[in-house]
Specification:
2 domains, two-stranded antiparallel ribbon, Nucleotide-diphospho-sugar transferases
């Protein structure tokens, strides 16, 4: 009898993805779905695969829900899957073998990312460029509440790097450019708010240097050029991502408020009142 494996999945309005995802993990001994109060049929679909469905408050990003999901899992071995990801059978077999061998405590898994219908070769999203610890023994892993903070592995854990492109997660990352921009806007706000709360200073010189390095890293070192115009565009967009975080941060500091739109609206109203007053003086 093989060692039991728990799969944890976080969801929010994933009715178009969740069935395909669950079909590829129904071999697991336990499936845990943590849903952020979806408005669509996500939960209804998930109920056909598991009765371990938990609700979690909406936070705008996945990390807190993953942390909560991990706490609900009963197996020693955990596989973390996103709703827009698929687990190929070759990957499943490798993971089961690793669990049985007991030589490792965690596995770094490659990701085959699709952007706007295209499988990425480079730009930081190629299979062996975008690798994450998604399979591990529960006691060796910790998730924080920070956006894109990913997972923290214990220093004494034995890590296996799965350097086989054919064993990559298939990740349908972004469907459309609009989808990308929507997440772009949401995540930059969350990250800017995090910096503001921790009093991280706005440093223009550092921003300029890091932006140049980011483009060079993605387009040249990560071979973004191999992805053609997508690679060029996404390299520039990732530079813009950092710029927008810092632009939002700067405005927050100027307004001394996370919700700076309210402060700016008051400022605009005062200007409008002054202009309106000019007419009443006639």
């Amino acid at each position: 009898m093989r060692k039991p494996i728990s799969v944890i999945i976080h969801t929010f309005n994933e009715e178009k993805n969740i069935r395909n995802c669950l079909e590829c993990v129904k071999w697991a001994d336990e499936i845990i779905v943590v849903d952020m109060y979806s408005d669509d049929k996500t939960i209804e679909i998930a109920q056909g695969y598991t009765d371990k469905i938990f609700m979690y408050e909406r936070s705008g990003y996945a990390d807190p829900a993953r942390k909560f999901a991990l706490e609900q899992a009963s197996s020693e071995w955990i596989l973390v899957v996103d709703a827009d990801e698929l687990v190929p059978m070759k990957l499943q077999r490798v993971l089961i073998d690793i669990a049985e061998s007991d030589k490792y405590d965690a596995v770094l898994i490659p990701h085959l990312n699709y952007f706007f219908g295209y499988p990425m070769k480079g730009t930081g999203w190629g299979p062996l460029q975008d690798m994450h610890i998604r399979f591990f023994k529960k006691q060796y892993m910790y998730y924080s509440d920070k956006v894109h903070d990913f997972a923290h592995l214990s220093k004494d854990a034995r890590l296996f790097r799965l350097l086989d492109k054919d064993c990559a997660f298939v990740h349908f990352n972004f469907l459309t450019v609009e989808h990308y921009i929507e997440k772009f806007n949401r995540y930059t706000t969350i990250e800017a708010q995090g910096k503001y709360k921790h009093d991280i200073p706005f440093d223009l010189k550092k921003i300029v240097i890091s932006s140049a390095k980011e483009f060079i890293r993605r387009f040249l070192f990560c071979k973004g050029y191999s992805d053609g115009f997508r690679g060029l565009s996404l390299s520039l967009l990732m530079v813009t991502y950092q710029l927008v975080i810092n632009l939002k941060l700067k405005i927050m500091y100027e307004c001394s408020n996370l919700n700076y739109d309210e402060v700016i609206r008051l400022k605009y109203n005062k200007i409008a009142e002054q202009i309106r007053a000019e007419y009443s003086e006639e």
